[in-house]
Amino acid sequence: MEETGGSVLGAAGEWIVWIAQNIALAFYNFGYAITHPTSWLDWVIWTNSTEDKESLLRFVYYGASVEFFFVAFMFFAVIFAFGIWKNTFLWNVVRFLEGIGNTVGRFAAWAGLAMVLQQVIIVFMQRIFTRPDIVFGFGVPLDFDISWYAEELKLYNAMVVALCLTYTFVQGGHVRVDLVYSAVSHRTKRVIDMFGSMFFMVPMAVLIWLYSWFFMWRALMSPVVNATTDLDKMMRKARVVKWKVETIGFSPSGFNAYFLFKVLIILMVAMLFIQAWAFLYRSYLEWKEGEESENKYLDKDVLEEGEEPYDHAEF
């Protein structure tokens, strides 16, 4: 029994030391990445050189690494620590982060209109003009089969879901199941919000990121890389790595850019992670400043007169 207890304490001690080491290294890693951008960003301007390929593989490797997690975590934790001392600074951060979600979401929401208009065009071209394809543009036209445009409608839907997720959260538009939240005090609500952001939103975002990061890159480059490949093995692959964007469709003439869905997953998770911290910051500030600060600086959409939806039909 004593031996089991000692092993548990030993494992817990090693775990604590490992976390402390990674927290300390996070500041060094962040500083090194900032001062040596060419080591991981050279691939942006692709010249097919070995240096570019090594830079790309470093970017891929560290994008879902322990080092990157602790850098991101400590970046937002330092902002929070400074904001505890300077609340005005933290409010500005909240407004900026929520502004990102609102701006991206409001822009991406137009994809819903584009989806409807494109569907109308498809119906007209098929049923009235009996054309097998649709051509857009001048000079070098965009010419695809109608089935390509029909399948591409799913991309608009994915854009609305992925890019409007945080926007809907900021606007308070998600469906919520409330068992105890409405019955507790203002400060208790804010404690629940802070707990939820740190122990539900952040871990969920990190977990989805870890699964989707290499999932995306497998559709963009060759040879295939995965989470079990260490950095040394990736560097040895640098000589043969090349761009190989996946363009396989479900039908011969159907939509063939499904890699965009994988990119959207990464954008969605990144915005969710950022919003989790913004929600933590807002919850803390509203907890500290009291009920009068509830929804302070919150940029919510307001329906103008005449824009309200009908509650019932009149006959």
Characterization of this structure:
The chain is mostly helical and 315 residues long. It folds into 2 domains: 12-101 and 206-295, no CATH class; 110-163. It is 65% helix and 4% strand. The chain is built from 11 helices and 4 strands, in the order H-H-H-H-H-H-E-E-H-H-H-E-H-E-H. The strands form 2 sheets. A two-stranded antiparallel sheet has the order 1-2. Helix 1 packs across helix 4, helix 4 (66-85) packs across helix 5 and helix 7 packs parallel to helix 11 (259-289). The relative contact order is 0.12.
Total strands? 4
Q: pLDDT average, as an integer?
A: 88
How large is the share of residues in beta strands?
Answer: under 5%
Helix content: 55-70%
* Helix run count: 11
Contiguous uncertain segments of 5+ residues = none
Q: What is the straight-line distance between the termini? A: 77 Å
Apparent shape: flat
In terms of structural class, how would the helical and strand content be classed? mainly alpha
Major beta sheet summary = 2 strands, antiparallel
Q: Order of strands in the sheet with the most strands?
A: 1-2
Tally of individual domains: 2
Measured on Cα atoms, how large is the radius of gyration? 24 Å
Compressed to H and E, one letter per element, the order equals HHHHHHEEHHHEHEH
